[in-house]
Recover the amino acids of this structure.
């Protein structure tokens, strides 16, 4: 993970462009989600939209140690897939599924990153509740992204929002700072203690994400080296926004209005 970088007002304005573009990609994909659609179809829409908004994928070719480069522009995580599912022709959406889409792009060297978990057709009441709880906990956490607060104030909201409803949060993956690098310091876990951790400063930009499982928090990695699934096969949801810490409080750079599909 790259070091912590404080952004200027000019840089944050540039990041609004990449944030809006990432949200546009997510919105277009959400409009296409329906039974019978494959995740390869969603990848095609992502690539077309990224080209349309004159952006570059942050994910395609992304390299981690001991991993093959990531082969797609989005992550498509169905049902018990928590994060990093790879789009393919075999994964065809069915009525009652839920699918998490993670989209990140860069414009002029600055990244924007967001994710949303969509229902496919009619979903079960338990799946609906999972999506609502996960999404609500993200917005509660974003409200804590203000100067003088600490990372633990954000993380504790993510944890408490899920665990108070009987769900669990992912412990081995986290949100992150973002800017010229997709992953910068600080790390923003889904669990933490209020009042603990790095103090927030104006100019920090954070990709705050929450990963919530209906069942246990334990996960495993698939043979592809990327896909993370729940160990007990339970449903999982993912929501994420890119957020700037400003002197008067948080500003969502991946505009929330674009999430309404």
């Amino acid at each position: 993970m790259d070091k912590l970088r404080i952004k200027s007002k000019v840089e944050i304005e540039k990041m609004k462009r990449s944030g809006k573009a990432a949200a546009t990609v997510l919105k277009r994909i959400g409009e296409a989600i329906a039974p019978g659609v494959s995740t390869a179809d969603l990848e095609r829409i992502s690539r077309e939209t990224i080209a349309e908004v004159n952006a570059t994928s942050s994910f395609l070719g992304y390299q981690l140690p001991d991993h093959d480069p990531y082969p797609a522009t989005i992550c498509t995580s169905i049902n018990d897939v928590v994060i990093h599912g790879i789009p393919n022709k075999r994964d065809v959406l069915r009525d009652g599924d839920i699918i998490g889409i993670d989209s990140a792009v860069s414009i002029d060297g600055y990244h924007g990153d967001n994710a949303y978990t969509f229902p496919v057709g009619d979903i079960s009441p338990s799946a609906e509740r999972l999506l609502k709880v996960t999404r609500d906990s993200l917005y509660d956490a974003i409200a804590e992204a203000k100067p003088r607060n600490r990372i633990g104030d954000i993380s504790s909201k993510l944890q408490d929002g899920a665990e108070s409803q009987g769900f669990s949060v992912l412990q081995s993956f986290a949100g992150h700072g973002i800017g010229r690098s997709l992953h910068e310091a600080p790390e923003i876990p889904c669990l933490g203690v209020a009042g603990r951790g790095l103090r927030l400063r104006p100019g920090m930009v954070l990709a705050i994400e929450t990963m919530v499982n209906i069942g246990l928090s334990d996960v495993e990695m698939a043979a592809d080296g990327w896909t993370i699934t729940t160990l007990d096969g339970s449903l999982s949801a993912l929501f994420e926004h890119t957020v700037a810490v400003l002197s008067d409080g948080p500003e969502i750079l991946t505009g929330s209005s674009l999430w309404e599909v």
Observations:
- The chain has one domain: 9-259.
